[in-house]
Specification:
The protein is mostly helical and about 210 residues long. It is about 45% helix and about 0% strand. It has a two-stranded antiparallel sheet with strand order 1-2. This is Peptidoglycan-binding protein LysM.
Length: about 210
């Protein structure tokens, strides 16, 4: 009797597992209400971001370097790595082609699709501007121009906006030369808005490249 049971056990197991394959297939037809009838939009805007009420400022990061770069990025692009504005400035920090080439970046498409490269370019450009403005940082930090205290972070933010040369003119004219970008943002506004961040980790470098 035991021998008969042992011989029949494999047949029983085969029958059990085989039964799973004999079940009627489940109906997998997609309901009409779930069908996609139009192309899905891809997150790759070609023009300046329109103000969106649901966008919020970046998390509070204090006066750290990370707080500085994220606040500046939010002002520039609302923190979007993949945006191109109406003037052709690219990415999270809104770099122009000429500045990218100074950093050693010649492929705009690669730059736009590589967040880590954008972060490297941002730090490299800060180091370059800090070198160009090293004397002005030494001379003017701690003084006030039109009621706004001059700080190192304010100087570097303004240089990101208008270029180091224009910031030199602003400082050495004691605010009388206050140029604006194409959207009407002035050097003095960036000097005020980005005052007081700790950017000491940025080392001044002459002609740095990626």
């Amino acid at each position: 009797m035991r021998k008969r049971i042992l011989l029949s056990s494999p047949l029983i197991m085969i029958a059990i597992f085989g039964s799973f394959g004999l079940k009627r297939p489940v109906n997998t037809t997609l309901p009409e209400t779930l069908r996609i009838k139009e192309p899905t939009a891809v997150l790759y805007p070609q023009y300046e971001i329109a103000p969106m009420p649901q966008r919020v400022a970046p998390p509070f990061l204090g006066s750290s370097y990370v707080g500085f770069k994220e606040a500046l990025a939010f002002k520039e692009s609302q923190g979007n790595y993949f945006v191109i504005n109406t003037l052709g400035y690219l990415g999270k920090y809104q770099f122009g082609i000429n500045t990218l080439q100074l950093m050693g970046v010649y492929n705009a498409s690669q730059f736009l699709n590589d967040p880590s490269l954008q972060e490297k370019v941002f730090m490299t450009n800060l180091a370059r501007n800090k070198w160009i403005l090293r004397k002005d940082i030494e001379w003017f930090v701690g003084h006030k121009i039109h009621g706004v205290e001059v700080t190192e972070s304010g100087i570097l933010a303004a240089a990101h906006l208008a270029g180091a040369g224009n910031v030199k003119k602003y400082l050495r004219s004691y605010g009388n030369y206050d140029t604006k970008d194409a959207y009407g943002t002035s050097i003095s506004e960036y000097m005020r808005k980005f005052s007081g961040y700790d950017v000491s980790r940025i080392m001044a470098r002459k002609n740095p490249r990626i």
